[in-house]
Amino acid sequence: MDKINLVKEKTKEVIRRRMFDGKDFAFLISEKSKQEELLLRIKKVMKGALKEYRLNPGREELDKLAEQVLSDIRGYGCLDDLMKDPLITDVLVNSPSQVFIEKKGELFRANLRFNSVEEIRSIIDRMMVGSGRRIDQFSPFVDFKLADGSRVTAVIPPVSSSGPAISIRKFSGEIFAPENLVELGTLTRNVLEFLGLAVKARLNILITGSTGVGKTTLMSSLLRFVPNNERTIVIEDTEEISLSEYHHSLKLLTRPSSIEGKGEITLQDLVRLSLHLRPDRIVIGEIRGEESFSFLHAINTGNEGSMCTLHANDALDALARIELLSLMARPNISPSVIRRFISMGIDLVVHLRRDIKGNRIVSQISEVGLNKGEFEIKDIYNLKQAFIDGGEVLSLNFTGVIPSFIDKLKARTQVKDINF
Question: In sequence order, what are the residues at sequence separation of 6 or more whose Cβ sits closer than 8 angstroms to the Cβ of residue 26?
């Protein structure tokens, strides 16, 4: 390690020691302190370390070194610049020398590296401050949310054999209006108008797709069509769904168990609770467990216009997954009863995927039905794919299938003609 890095480490060591000694650095490191004041204190400590190693940097270099130390202590070290870049959506740390980012839908290797695995672990600990979560040899992985809304998953040995690893799904903070999805090419204007009518007509909608295809973004946008006088209960693990300030809504968040293993609040608990909170609609950020059966029960007993997301490969796969999850929650119920429950409750499945360039697009909008006891998917819109001049050309087209709920759609929205 060169002398400059030794100075930085020496400075951080002195500051940490003063924090634990009860001196005022503890407050200065907090988010409430002013950056200029903290930089002055850091430079004062740093000058002693520079003198010890017989270094005399210029004013600009000293300012830069102090900012780097501040970033290491209060920020996220070498990840700070990545976290500030609005075009980066994911940050993936596999090891000190392997850091990847997702930018505009494509993965790139970042031109940075950590000094050690201890530095990665230190950043994990810093990110977890205030989250109420923990990570150690007994709980070697953790999910939590940063103050800016970004979602973090961290893993340490023995689960991760290469050392501490971090996966960050950044929260853009940008609230997408429905029209923005048309501009981005996620869907066409006709499709947006159809989905808007479906929301206003209180159809139950399941939004599916793989990780990172924009399920939550689409759901947040579609919720803009919910009338302001309807009460919406939103249930999530981490707060991701964006709602208009004019919405009559209540957000409920799960909670992990304490170190003693007590106090856990699950999605299932919150779905049950929501039924006592006078909901018009229930929205679940993502279903993946026994809460699926409670959700089906809710939408089949008066809570029309509800939505949720689910990881799946296509619309039919999504229904099979809900069936499986519901059977796991209620193994004493016949699969045929569950299928009937699903077909009666879910009106539409909207599936998203990425194109070859990484763009997020709606690829399938389907009505759910049953035929001789088996799920029947009727595509109202599907994606046509062609390759022209070596490039992929996609278009979301109306299939000609008129959904069975068309009369209900028109009656509830008072629209005479629907332009598919």
Answer: 19
The percentage of the chain sitting over the pLDDT mark of 90, rounded to a whole number, equals 50
**pLDDT given at position 173:** 61
pLDDT beyond 60 at 20 = no
Bridge partner list, 375: 370
- Over residues 306-352, the pLDDT tens digits come to 999 999 999 999 999 999 999 999 999 999 999 999 999 999 999 99
Give the global pTM: 0.78
pLDDT-based confidence at 21, cuts 50/70/90? very low
Q: Same domain, yes or no, for 21 and 158?
A: no
**Which pLDDT does position 346 carry in this prediction?**
96
Domain check: are 51 and 150 in the same one?
no
**Domain membership flag for residue 419:** no
How far apart, in whole angstroms, are the C-alpha atoms of residue 205 and residue 348? 5
Total number of domains in the chain: 3
Classify residue 262: in a domain, yes or no. Answer: yes
Residue 248 maps to a domain: yes
Residue 299 has pLDDT above 70, yes or no: yes
User: In whole angstroms, how far apart are CA 390 and each of 222, 353, 363, 386?
Assistant: 34, 20, 21, 10
N-to-C CA span, the chain: 65
Q: How far apart are CA 45 and CA 66, in angstroms?
A: 10
Question: By the 8 A CB rule, do 276 and 320 touch?
Answer: no
The two structure tokens encoding residue 134: 């923990």
Q: What is the pLDDT of residue 389?
A: 65
| Helices of type H across 264-389 | 267-274, 291-299, 315-329, 335-345
Q: Retrieve residue 176's tokens.
A: 């997408």
How far is Cα 15 from Cα 40, in angstroms, rounded to an integer? 13
CA-CA-CA-CA torsion sign (118, 119, 122, 124): negative
Cα–Cα distance measured from residue 77 to residue 93, given in angstroms and rounded to the nearest whole number: 13
CA dihedral of residues 334, 338, 344, 347 (deg, nearest 10)? -160
Helix H or strand E segment including 92: strand 88-95
* Strand order, beta sheet including 281-284: 249-253, 232-236, 281-284, 307-311, 205-209, 348-354, 360-371, 374-388, 391-398
In angstroms, the CA 64 to CA 52 distance is: 19
The helix or strand, by DSSP H or E, that contains position 179, with its residue range, turns out to be helix 178-184
User: What value does the mean pLDDT take over residues 243-271?
Assistant: 84
